[in-house]
Design brief:
143 residues, mainly alpha, extended
């Protein structure tokens, strides 16, 4: 009986040893991000967000620096808001939305007209994905 258990354990270790490298090649980033494109848990990092916007909007180096600064400030505000236990869930959600709207407006102001149009399209798609995942917007979302 003991030999059989040891044999099963050895087989399991060999299978795991072969599976590990293929998992690492297939997307080690999924460990940190928790899934496709940073969703499923953790949002993308500021640097990842800047890279994405740079790719989508063809940002200049100056724009990248401005956007990074804006996103870092947003991240600080969001972290502080998460720590604030005095707010109701509805108030916290409303504040998150305010911060996001302010951030989007600041980013938009750093863009040229063509980039603004593309950014608006990205935001529209993001809002569509949010509706899919979280249901229809509340009254405060529609303001």
């Amino acid at each position: 009986m003991r030999k059989r258990a040891i044999t099963y354990l050895q087989v399991a270790l060999v299978v795991a040893a072969f599976a590990l490298p293929s998992f690492a090649q297939s997307g080690g980033e999924t460990d940190r991000k928790g899934g496709r494109n940073g969703h499923m848990g953790m949002p993308p990092s500021v640097d990842d967000h800047v890279k994405h916007l740079t790719k989508e909007l063809n940002l200049t180096e100056d724009q990248q620096a401005k956007v990074k600064s804006i996103l870092e400030e947003q991240q600080k505000q969001m972290a502080a808001l998460r720590q604030d236990s005095t707010l109701s869930p509805e108030d916290r959600r409303a504040k998150f939305q305010e911060i996001h709207q302010k951030t989007s407006q600041e980013i938009r102001e750093a863009l040229n007209k063509d980039q603004q149009r593309k950014f608006d399209e990205l935001e529209s798609k993001r809002k569509g994905r949010m509706k899919e995942h979280h249901g229809p917007p509340s009254q405060s979302d529609q303001q």
